[in-house]
Structure formats: structure tokens, C-alpha cells
Amino acid sequence: MNVVVLGVGMHPWGKWGRPFLEYGVAAARAALGDAGVAWTDVEFVVGADTIRNGYPGFVAGASYAQALGWSGARIASCYAACASGAQAVDIARTRILAGLCDVALVVGADSTPKGFFKPVGGDRPDDPDWLRFRLLGATNPAYFGLYARRRMAVHGSTPADFAAVKVKNSRAGSLNPMARYRKPVTAEEVLASPLVADPLRLMDICATSDGGAAVVLASESYARRRGLRAPVRLAAVSTVTPTFPSTILELPNFATDSRVAAPAPERPFRAAIAHAAYEEAGVGPEDVSLAEVYDLSTALELDWMEDVGLCPPGEAAKLLHDGETGLGGRIPVNPSGGLASFGEAIPAQAIAQLCELTTQLRGEAGDRQVPVARVGLAANQGLFGHGSALIVTT
Length: 394
Fold this sequence. Notes:
Helices cover about 35% and strands about 20% of the residues. It has 14 helices and 11 strands.
């Protein structure tokens, strides 16, 4: 049995100042309309949780089901930080594969505070996330800066390389009506923007945004009964955890696991996330037509390109400067515009990636269309060992 993406929908990213439920419901209705499915036909709803929006955010599945109108559908809610959307998709996919339902709706949306993220309120000295803010002053941008410095030391990357990522993504974002930032920028503008976390400047780091995304998943037999003969298939969802010992620092745990008692794993965490998805889908990096990767910062996009196997370690900048990862290139990376153009709306991010991959594989992406797109990969990760990778195929 295969699971197909029957419909996709989004609410534009921005700073709208409205409740997150409005964004999620708008995205859900758009996805249902795209799928040609009535809300009352949905058998299972999964909500990706948001921890900043009170009790409704913690029980997002129920919140969306109530807002759309109680219908008796079964529900689930999940939180996995930035991997929340992918885990929500995986829950729905698993239920369909188990034969427990034919149609599922997955929704994620967020309303974010002004500025960069801060720890959830209260004093929690046993919470590593709280500790890294309060004891180390390690905000998210500070952590992104450490990763950028590591890349510069290990691979010789430069601020000009990082700026080129932003230039590429801003061009793609300018063509995406759902993106928050739709103005192309120059490398000079990036390099002249305020320094935030050395070596990263303001334009190197993604914003925090409001937004929503939703997908309707279905069994392939259901899609055939509805006359859909060439659906986009959800070929893999990877939610693997790290393997001991972890030899690369991961937020919020700054200490590495010991290699005294055990050899390093075959693959670091991020590479393992993508590898598991490739294995499940029966494809490899060489088959990928386009990739949506987690550009929390410009430097991290370069890391992810290598982690998912698009090029050997240290060669991402060359691929970028050769134009191969831009629109019209051999392997476009973040043709949606990425987080550089959207910003973070945490529960919606992985779902939005799936929306972009589906739109591309359908050939409906307009001016940012990747020609002959057959295999799409999306990858990101969440705090505390939450892996996230999706592969879709035609």
C-alpha cells in the first residue's frame, strides 16, 4: 500500500498578529479544497503542536478539529520542536498504512513573538533548553554562529559563501506568494546587515514568523477511486534519533558523548536522518530532483547539502557558486525560498516543505518550477534528537 499526498494548502507567512488557529484552519481548508475532499470525509486529524499559544496549542489536533467543526474524526497531537510537522505526517501516514483510515488531514501553524525565540516561561533548572539560555546565554542565533564558525574552520567557508546562499534563496522567495520576504537581495546587502552572532549577520539568520501549512494524505486505493491516476507518493518519512556517541555538538546539549567507550557511529545525526529516508524510499541522493533543507542560517544550508548527500563534505559552496543549487540548476535547493524567505513557524515548517515538494512534482510551481521533478527530499531536525526527512516521488 502507498500513501499519496492528495491535497496541500498554506496560509502566507508573515507577522499577522492573529491566533494560530486562524492560520491552521485557512491552510486546512485550502488543502481540503485542493484535494477535493469534504471536511466531513476526513477520518483522522493530526495537529503539530505549538508551545507558545496556550492550551489550544498543546492539543492542536483537537483545536483544529473543533475549529473546523466537530465531525467525530479521530485525532492526535504531537510536538517534536522543528520536526513536529514531519512527525505529525508520520503519524497520519502510519495510520493509513495500517489500514485504519483512508483519509487524514495534517495541520501545523504558529503565532510567534517579536524577535528571536526565548525559553518557555518559568524557572526550570532541570530543563537543558532553559539552562542553555540562562546559564550560557546561548540563544538560537548564537548556536547558529557556532556552527558557522565550525564550517569556516573545517571547510574554509567564508561570509561571502553564506551571503550567496541568502541571495539564491531570496530570488526563489520573490517568486513564492506564500513567502514573507519577497524582495531579492544582493550579497553586498547581506554583508552590510548588522552582525548578530559572529560570523552571521541579520540577513544570514531566519526570522520568526506566523504561518500555517496543511496536507491531506490518503491511501492510493482511495485516490484511484477518486480518479487520481498519477498522484504524488509519500515514499518515506524518517524520524530517527542520534546514535551514541554524538561527536558533533547539538543544541541544546553542548557536551559531546564520550568516544572513549564506543567508536564514532558510521554517520553523524543529520546524515543518518537522510540516509534512513533514502533506504525506505529505495532511492539515493543521485535520484533527487530538488531538496528543501533547513536553512535556519545560511551556513546551515551548506551543511545540510552535504549531510543529505548532494555533494561530498566541504563541496557545498562550490555547488552553490556553480549555480547548481539555484533555480534552473541541476539540483535546486530550497526552491520555495527556504526559511530565509519564510522565517520559522515551527509546527508548520516540515509540512510546508512537503507542500513545496508536492507542488513541484505536480508541475504547478510556476516561475520557480523545477523541470522534470520526479523525486523530492525535505530535511530538518528538532531539538532533543528529533530527526525529520521526507521523500516524495511521482
